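Example 4.3 (complexes with small molecules)
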Amino acid sequence: NRYVTIKTQINGKPKESDFEIKSSPLVLSAEPGSNDVVLKNLYVSIDPYQINRMKTYSSTQKTSGYATAITPGQVIDAYGVAKVVASGNPEFEKDDLVVGMITWGEYSVLKGQYILRKLDPMGFSLSYHVGIFGFSGLTAYAGFFEVCKPKKGEKVFVSAASGSVGHLVGQYAKHFGCYVVGSAGSKEKVALLKDKLGFDDAFNYKDEPDLKSALKKYFPDGIDIYFDNVGAEMLEAAVANMNTFGRIAACGVISEYTDASKRAAPDMLEIVYKKITIRGFLAEDFMNLYPDLLSATVDHLRTGTLHTVEDISTGLESIPQAFIGLFHGSNVGKKIVKLVDE
Ligand code: NDP
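Answer. The structure with NDP bound is encoded below.
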């Protein structure tokens, strides 16, 4: 079984030489009653948070807070879709399609406790179950509706808006009746947001020398909701432009993951005087909203009133580059690696 791992702990932006492909012997069977499952991996998710698991932590700190640390050589667990090859767990049979925490490898051997469920593709591509029907979709849905608590007509700003989570947040917000502006890192991404995904406006943050004045231009009446995917100076600029009782969903801070010196220092006095709520959240705490995500999404996808943008690379070898690309804005929409033709 070939799998991607890190050669060394990564501090800063990841690069190709930080990764290697290793292989280990694989037994394509599972002892009956053992609970073990062997899966052939089909699609794996490529997510920014994994970088936080790859950093150097002190020897006493075994976890990175959100998920366990990854050590060099280790098989890396990741969300994805797979097919059962062998199962000692009565819940799963050979050839079942499953979704859950699999690995950045050709096969996954799961033992003991694992997060996996049978997958009904509902007539959609299997990749949709990694993205829009996976954690990206749930993050966007729960983050917007539960964390931001929107009201119709409110003004919403989304950063990393053409990314996996961001492009869905903006569309849910538009469907709900909000005014939505997104920021993204290229003119092609800006065009996608405005022309295909129905954002009211969008801008390339790399072209803006002063983010505070840029947001003032796009939100002359202030921002009610900021869905923050990036942190750093964008968060500071958003706080400066928030309205009274504004809400900020702290979804992620990708610009800080590879550069701790960029950590945001929002003006706390503005937060006090404007009574702003900043709430961090993890999608995994909102699994109960999964049925709501489906009802808000399935029909719209079928009728074309909601779009999901996917960016799929093929083959195990493409995993390092796919992951590295997240930190350079190479991906448009949900980054996924397809492992086999199925
Ligand atoms: P994306 O698909 O948005 O990919 C990352 C994007 O971030 C890139 O394409 C790039 O777009 C942008 N980016 C990269 N570096 C920077 C930077 N230095 N400054 C500004 N933008 C940058 O990833 P996801 O949608 O999967 O994740 C988005 C955020 O949500 C991340 O912070 C992630 O950790 C978080 N997240 C949180 C979850 C939760 O449960 N709270 C669950 C899933 C994700 P561009 O071209 O616009 O720069």
